[in-house]
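hey so i finally got around to running the thing on that chain from the lab meeting. sorry it took forever, my laptop kept dying and i had to restart like 3 times. anyway pasting the input first so we r on the same page abt which one it is
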Amino acid sequence: MERIKERAQVARKALSTLQELTNKPELSLIERDATIQRFEYTFEATWKTAQLYLAEVEGVSVNSPKGVVRASWQAGLFDEATSKLALQMCDARNMTVHTYNEKIAMTIYHQIEDYVGVFEIWLNAIEKKLAS
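ok and heres what got predicted. didnt touch it at all, straight out
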């Protein structure tokens, strides 16, 4: 349980750095790219936290981000609508390697605000289940 809590703290810290850059009215290319980079590491920290939670608490072994999303939904960490958005988030994470493409970069950037909500829901649910 301590490892899960430690990972959740790391994910929370990553999320807070991402939130610093979201909702900015004026955006430089550097800020856009930094936001996408922060999205990447927040995604990694969060899905790996969920993966560990599922293994240690729910007894479910899953090795891919999409598998972890599906198992998280089945474990009641979020509802179906959030699950669908989380699966879209997995696809967006996979596309971040193409940020050199202006259109892809802007598409990902504009989705990140929605993904911040998914991260919050996911981490809140894990923390709540650990506390009970």
